[in-house]
Amino acid sequence: MDGFQLIATTTAGLEACTRRELQDMGFPDAKVYSPGRILFDAGPAGLVRANLWLRTADRVLLVIGSFDARDFGELFDRTYALPWPRWIPVDGKFPVCGRSYKSQLSSVPACQKIVKKAIVEKLRSGHGASELPETGATYTVEIAMRENAALLTVDTTGPGLNKRGYRAAAGPAPIKETLAAAMVQLSFWNPDRQMIDPFCGSGTIPIEAVLIGRNIAPGLNRPFVAEEWDAIPHGCWKTERDNARDLIKPALPLKIIGTDIEQKAIALAGHHAELAGVGDDIHFQRKPFDQLATSHEYGCLICNPPYGKRFESSSDILAMYRSMADVFRTLKTWSFYVITSVDLEQILGQSADRRRKLYNGQIECTYYQFHGPRPPKASSLQENSAQSHETIAPAFGGLNEKVLRQAEVFADRLRKMARHRRRWPGRGISCYRIYNRDIPEIPITVDIYEDRLHIAEYDRPNDRTMAEQGDWLDMLVTSAGEVLGIPQEKIYLKSRQRQRGNHQYGKVSQTRNVFMVHEGGLTFEVNLSDYLDTGIFLDHRNTREMVRKESAGKRMLNLFAYTGAFSVYAADGKAISTTTVDLSKTYLDWAKRNFSANGFEGPQHRFAQSDAVAFVHSHAPAEHYDIAVIDPPTFSSSKRTEDVFDVQRDYSRLLNATAKLMPRGGVIYFSTNFRRFKFDPDTLAGLAAHEISNQTVPEDFRNKRIHRCWRITV
Description:
The protein is of the alpha/beta class and 714 residues long. It is built from 20 helices and 27 strands. Helix 10 crosses helix 14 (466-484), helix 13 packs parallel to helix 14 (466-484) and helix 15 runs parallel beside helix 16 (565-572). The radius of gyration is 36 Å and the shape is elongated. 41% of the residues are buried.
């Protein structure tokens, strides 16, 4: 049989992949005909080969003819003139589907009806038959109108080429096999490199990679509609399948790794791999993404992470994508390929080396490609193995000379402060700040809690990516541990900028850390791992001592009490009663544990879970207190002007209401981190307020505005 024209259809964005496949398959003249359509010439064997081997195409169409058509008469006549009897037998079933784009013949149903009628007339004439029973093989005809040009094709594939036959069931948000294959083809992966998919779902990407790596034809084990056609010799299908089986390569030298947090997905992925005949080439494992690690070098990570449906909130999905910086930066020699609908570059603060717009189903996505270093050539393996990774430019993270110099400056500063404060533990101060953003280029704080370190990260420079920031912080953590003689597992790092709560990095301890510390002869529970604040505010060490000295024989009220440290100091100072008020049950329970740890128990020590303002107003004037501590939560310095006035007014009113619970001579210690705070004179009438911040901020706090504190006399 003479050659004919075929069209391989594909998803928008994958035309170059499909064209390259066809050229490698022996069709050098393959070219993009229109968006999503690649035209090539072939004979019967080529038609079979294209169906068996195309990985990124959706289907293979046989071109019957093309022509211009601006009215239905022209469409009928030119359709009738085409060689339909050559392909469709007298009993052939030929449904007609259609589409129209920017054409005068815009009614698709009308176009389908005309084409069907023209084919019927031509088949009757060509086969000399009065009846066409349509009981035989299927020949699905498509009429595609585009800018008044008609293209008539017959589908040779049947179910789309993505239907490889191995996916028995789909997990949540599955990716098409054709798109998965394209992602692998567009990467640097080859069978000699390790590959990981940390969001493997039902296993599609790893399975497609094995099919590529072992040269297994994706359509080898599935039927095609054209197999039933008399016009295509049946021997072609057997010959091409036999040839395909002969070309299969042995098992991959390195197993592909597929991980997912869902055990059901892992089980389904394993089942699909077995159905595809590649179960021995993939290792599937249940593992959270943030625990991903490997000792292999120069690998490729290719993944289709969730876009939102598998997360409870947008903050969850944002946290997952942000965590990519920390996971990826640990794989210094790897390359990374991520398809997603979110703006990954903006989240990671880093541009991809390449990006390509693709569609995952109906969702517009971007395929981000971050290229790591090239694997060393075999001839220079020994030379490269001795090369330090610091000289390799990783896809994520890395340290430059400027940053390395910062580590030296930071270490020198810590040594100096350690020498200066070496006698503090002997003075009863075992928890203190040793580094307080002393160097502008290193905006972190370092606090010592006896034999542990608590490090807080602040602003990330605009010229540093999240991954680079992570490596920078790791460097500082390592440096701090070495200088102060504290092992890495006893160092805890948190972020005050990127997210609420704890943000831990690779070298920092991941274990929960709750223990007891000592201050002023007292014992307090601190938690370095679970919360942004640790349970005791180090900047109020002096203020707590003031309260203790003034509490003897007095009734003490602690509003916004947090974990009750001020109340414990008052009890130790012989207060006749303490009332600890906080809205959080967690903090109140913590305060109770602090009281018990110091042996202060009894009905004279009360704990009230309540809003501070509501507590004060509900108790006036039934109870009286001689000394009160008011330390409201921190407010952002970026508040709008009207909000600032509201805070100042509300605090002033709270102070005035508290004063009404106190006899003349009563004392209120009021502290705030709200730097622009000013008292409202109208609501503080009759109260004498004296700022004592110079006395309350300890010397280990370089920032003398860490808080402001007043001693107010009623």
